[in-house]
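Lab meeting, item 3. Inverse folding demo.
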């Protein structure tokens, strides 16, 4: 690594961590309806939204009513986007006259964007009209992270409130998350991207004459607005098929730096928001410390793996051994490895290099980031509520070790909460291990793998891990656009989204109804270094014990085979 590589990493950390406490406090005030700097501008719009939709902003909901409202909104979103994608050939803003999507691909894409996964089994510029990209995908890029934020806020209230059934109002939380959190951050980033060279136009594709005398169509479109929210909303779906490797999505080193930081900007800030909800910022800082430890381990490992030469090139001079396969020379190995680690830690899925071309260990660590279950920062809202589940599990384990009834912030964890926590531990194994086993054991689905042996298994394993973790990134070379994989990866995405949301809201309702006991001298501290170590080890042990055999069949076997060749 050179001096400017260390400068890149430092600048990235500053951009993420420096504004996080201030944004976290702002998010708390905005989501609770308190006055903020943007209230004079946005409060009238918020009020108008409630009047148009018939929502009473003062009405409170218990966890079941909250969940029913969320499921109703999700169902309407699924139906509306599916119909739009199927019928885009008859809709406006379609200068390329693209037909509607095939139904299994439309189903997969619909589920993908509604669940905040943004897995793409298609190429955006070749498959979707401007209308579909804007009204369909960009809208979901806003509301799907807003739903995740709403679930997080309800969970925070469940932990922070006492002797109540009220968790807030889903429609109010959804509206405020969109208006006050996502929109204000996306506007300046979109303008910055336009300045850097990202197109934002309704013009037809440009036609050019190549040096060889051939005709070339250059894709354009309203890209900057979608790319801003794809990064900040931890969505990841590219306007163009090559995603953030495309010069129209990620044109400069400056755009690459800001978009890498944007991947975890909101998840990092929401940790401080949680601290405000429970009236103890030390709790948020402890969780952030665990996230940073996990992120540092994954990033350092990925950087090390990608800066090592392929064993087949080990005899070449050092300056000729660098691995640039699948990477943009505009960014290089360090920026690509940092982006790969960040996007899989953030549950985003956008890429500025092809993960299929990473070294076996360089590809394994981003894969393991996802296998941990969207907790190393993770998606907007979803990452923190996933981490809070592990916090409760760590507290339960600590209670077993010291012989006390486990409690978190004065709320005792009893049999009901523990059963729900155990249920969440089954989500990733079912979506990843069971569905990957099916896809690789059946002759038809297994034909989607383009490489024999361990690397081919890694391709299928990565696809179903990405779907279940609601990430959306992929190993290139896996032919996902088949009826089987469109349906099964769609199922994995639904399992990964609602397999957590349902028990989380049930736990929130159960905790909110409990009274809060005062913390005593014998209470297990959840804000110090000891708890950070316990939480980090709990996450690593659960993830390692669950997925190490699968990793041994894929990237580990490939790495050992590479060394032996």
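The presenter then showed the designed sequence:
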């Amino acid at each position: 690594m050179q001096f400017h590589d260390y400068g890149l990493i430092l600048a990235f950390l500053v951009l993420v961590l420096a504004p996080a406490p201030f944004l976290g406090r702002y998010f708390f005030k905005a989501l609770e309806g308190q006055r903020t700097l943007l209230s004079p501008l946005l409060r009238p719009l918020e009020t108008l939204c409630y009047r148009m939709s018939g929502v009473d902003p003062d009405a409170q909901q218990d966890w079941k009513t909250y969940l029913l409202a969320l499921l109703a909104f999700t169902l309407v979103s699924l139906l509306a986007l599916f119909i739009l994608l199927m019928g885009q050939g008859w809709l406006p803003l379609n200068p390329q006259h693209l037909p509607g999507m095939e139904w299994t691909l439309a189903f997969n894409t619909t589920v993908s964007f509604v669940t905040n996964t943004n897995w793409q089994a298609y190429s955006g510029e070749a498959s979707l009209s401007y209308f579909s990209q804007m009204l369909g995908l960009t809208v979901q890029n806003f509301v799907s992270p807003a739903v995740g934020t709403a679930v997080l806020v309800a969970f925070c209230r469940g932990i922070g409130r006492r002797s109540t059934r009220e968790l807030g109002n889903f429609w109010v939380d959804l509206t405020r998350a969109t208006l006050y959190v996502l929109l204000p951050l996306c506007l300046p980033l979109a303008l910055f991207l336009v300045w850097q060279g990202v197109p934002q136009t309704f013009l037809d594709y440009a036609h050019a004459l190549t040096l060889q005398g051939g005709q070339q169509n250059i894709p354009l479109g309203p890209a900057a607005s979608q790319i801003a929210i794809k990064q900040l909303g931890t969505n990841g779906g590219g306007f163009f098929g090559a995603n953030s490797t495309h010069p129209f999505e990620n044109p400069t080193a400056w755009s690459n730096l800001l978009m890498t930081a944007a991947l975890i900007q909101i998840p990092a800030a929401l940790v401080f928001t949680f601290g405000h909800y429970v009236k103890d910022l030390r709790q948020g800082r402890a969780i952030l410390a665990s996230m940073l430890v996990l992120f540092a381990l994954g990033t350092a490992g990925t950087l090390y793996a990608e800066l090592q030469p392929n064993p087949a090139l080990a005899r070449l001079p050092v300056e000729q051994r660098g691995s640039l396969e699948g990477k943009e020379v505009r960014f290089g190995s360090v920026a690509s490895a940092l982006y790969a680690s960040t996007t899989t830690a953030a549950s985003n899925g956008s890429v500025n290099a092809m993960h299929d071309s990473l070294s076996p260990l360089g590809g394994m660590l981003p894969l393991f980031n996802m296998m941990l279950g969207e907790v190393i920062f993770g998606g907007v809202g979803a990452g923190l509520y996933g981490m809070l589940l592990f916090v409760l599990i760590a507290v339960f384990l600590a209670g077993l070790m010291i012989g006390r009834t486990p409690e978190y912030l004065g709320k005792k964890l009893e049999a009901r909460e523990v059963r729900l926590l155990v249920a969440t531990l089954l989500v990733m194994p079912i979506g990843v291990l069971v569905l990957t086993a099916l896809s690789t054991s059946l002759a038809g689905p297994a034909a989607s793998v383009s490489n024999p042996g361990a690397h081919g298994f890694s391709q299928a394993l990565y696809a179903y891990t990405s779907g279940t973790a609601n990430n959306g990134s992929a190993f290139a070379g896996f032919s996902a656009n088949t009826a089987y994989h469109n349906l099964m990866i769609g199922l994995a995405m639904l399992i990964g989204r609602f397999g957590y949301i349902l028990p989380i809201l049930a736990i929130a309702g159960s905790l909110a109804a409990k009274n809060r006991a005062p913390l005593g001298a014998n209470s297990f501290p959840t804000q110090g270094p000891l708890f950070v170590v316990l939480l980090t080890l709990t996450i690593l042990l659960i993830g390692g014990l669950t997925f190490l055999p699968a990793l041994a069949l894929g990237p580990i076997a490939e790495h050992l085979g590479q060394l032996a060749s």
